Amino acid sequence: MPLFKTDPTAPPKPPKTKSREWADSLIFAIVAATLIRWATFEAYTIPSPSMEASLLVGDYLFVSKLHYGPITPQTPLQVPLTHQTVWGTGLKSYSELIQLPTYRLPGFSEIKRNDVVVFHVPHETQYPADLRTNYIKRCVAVAGDTLEIRDGKVFLNGKPGETPPGLQTTYFMQVDSPNDEVLAALRSQGVVEYEAPGGIPQAVPGPTPGSYGYTISCTQATADYFKKQPYVKALTVLQPQVQLFPDVADFHGSAAMSATPRNWSLDSYGPLPIPKKGQVITLSPANAAIYYKIVARYEHNEGITWQDGMIYQNGKMLTSYTIKQNYYMMMGDNRHNSEDSRFWGFVPEDHVVGKAVLIWLSMDPNADFWHKIRWSRLFNIIH
């Protein structure tokens, strides 16, 4: 039995015009592409050297959202209000921002250690999570782990972690004399300074008067090569002297600082426990800075303030807290040239976009036209 009856005497609907057909097709294509991009795969490019040499500047990637599951939009919806609603509530606007719950659809994989992950950077608090800058880093620790870095090497739960094959360290390479032989060797070893003209490393004064050398980021194999060269006088590990998380409790967000400084460095960091959903934390001045942003921002609690090294809610000191979602530590493979979790702390699970799976194109920004494409990197699986 039909659900609706039609009037046989009604005139037939006029056929769609060509412009209407084109408009409908365009709208369908836009909606389909948006859904595919949101739920399956999205293309990204690498703009900075923080993941070198695993990923290079100019690599074009496909990021899978199927692995961990696509996540619902986190931008508040602007809902129109009726005139009566506005009149009855005293609101001065005809619209209201509604924050819907965030939900991740099922994926076929969990976030695992050593996955290369795209996520919304946590510290851009002026925007909703899904409107923030997207970062790509390696997941070095998952919820429930305890992370420690000793002499630049990652340890998880007291045991050595896996070392990525492209892991880089920054060195000052002091040479007898900066010349074409040294530059040719740097070029042959794939050492690049992206901010310099043509990507060619520039000689700078060394630690002693009259000495010169190069600040380079390279793999251990490349460092071992240069140590054997007669023109290299010294190869010294460099790392910036900066204050890190959790001494800096709220990176770029506020002046909140830990009441118990740890003075960790990029190569000597931790031990730091990674929060897990359902975990009950006893808060004290010794650890409150670790959990401040979780309580104040990531888990959307109201009335949170930071006073004298402790977390307060509506003027009352919090002495315990139950974690509402899983968290992760993300680090770049270019370990001394990466602003990552060592600076701003944990990445919440609801900030994770997807897993980087494939390099489909790679363009060398410093090469000439005939050598622009890095053919050997095309369609490489990302590890």
UniProtKB/TrEMBL annotation:
Catalytic activity from the UniProt record: Cleavage of hydrophobic, N-terminal signal or leader sequences from secreted and periplasmic proteins
Active site: S50, K137
UniProt KW Protease keyword: yes
Species for this entry: Hymenobacter cyanobacteriorum
Domain of life: Bacteria
Top EC class, one word: hydrolase
Keyword Hydrolase: yes
Any GO BP: signal peptide processing
Protein's name in the database: Signal peptidase I
Subcellular locations according to the entry: Membrane
Main location per the UniProt record: membrane
Lineage of origin: Bacteria, Pseudomonadati, Bacteroidota, Cytophagia, Cytophagales
Cellular component, GO, one term: membrane
GO molecular function, one term: serine-type endopeptidase activity
Bilayer topology: Single-pass type II membrane protein
PANTHER family for the chain: CHLOROPLAST PROCESSING PEPTIDASE (PTHR43390:SF1), SIGNAL PEPTIDASE I (PTHR43390)
Domain Peptidase S26 as annotated: residue spans: 20-164, 319-360
